[in-house]
Amino acid sequence: MARNYRVSVNGKSYDVVVEEIGAQTPAAAVPVAPSAPAPAAVTSAPAPAAAAPKPAASAGAGTITSPMPGKIWKLPVREGDTVTEGQLVLVLEAMKMENEIFAPTGGKITSVNCKEGDSVNTGDVLLVIG
């Protein structure tokens, strides 16, 4: 069954038809009165294939700071461990989502300033890679 709705986007109203999956009535059979011109098609560049993970925001080349407030969910590295660029160094839970934080550079972990379960704020220094 298709249903008509009016949606406002950036101050412009659009009439839309929403059809339930598996419904018997095709959406094309439901007349809809246009209330505004359709928005221009938005095209986006394709996502890069197998791009290297992006490191967290950092104060220095090997300083990993928290990109957002959250809770340290997983910390698979310890002080003294050697890591490679792009290696997962911690998982930060924020707004019920797990955000993977990767090493911005390779080297030895010289300082771990957090532990699993810690609450952190934006900009807190979490790890230092020397």
Notes on the structure:
Residues 50-59 have low confidence and may be disordered. The strands form three sheets. The protein has a four-stranded antiparallel beta sheet, with no helix packed on it. A four-stranded antiparallel beta sheet has the order 7-6-4-9, with no helix packed on it. A two-stranded antiparallel sheet has the order 1-2. The protein has strands spanning 2-9, 12-19, 63-65, 70-74, 82-83, 88-94, 97-102, 107-112, 119-120, 125-129. It has no helices and ten strands. The protein folds into two domains: 1-40, no CATH class; 63-129, OB fold (Dihydrolipoamide Acetyltransferase, E2P) (Beta Barrel). A hairpin with a 2-residue loop joins strand 6 (88-94) and strand 7 (97-102).
Query: Helix-strand pattern, N to C?
Result: EEEEEEEEEE
CATH architecture classification name of the largest domain: Beta Barrel
Total domain modules: 2
Strand content: 35-45%
Strand line-up of the largest beta sheet: 3-10-8-5
CATH evolutionary superfamily of the largest domain: RNA polymerase II/Efflux pump adaptor protein, barrel-sandwich hybrid domain
CATH topology heading of the largest domain: OB fold (Dihydrolipoamide Acetyltransferase, E2P)
Give the fraction of residues assigned to helices.
under 10%
Gyration radius, rounded: 24 Å
Number of helices: 0
How far the N terminus sits from the C terminus, by CA atoms, comes to 61 Å
Per CATH, the class of the largest domain reads: Mainly Beta
* Largest β sheet strand count, sense and barrel closure: 4 strands, antiparallel
* Average pLDDT taken over every residue: 79
Structural class: mainly beta
* Number of E-type strands: 10
Shape: elongated
- Which parts are unreliable, with pLDDT below 50 for 5 consecutive residues or more? 50-59
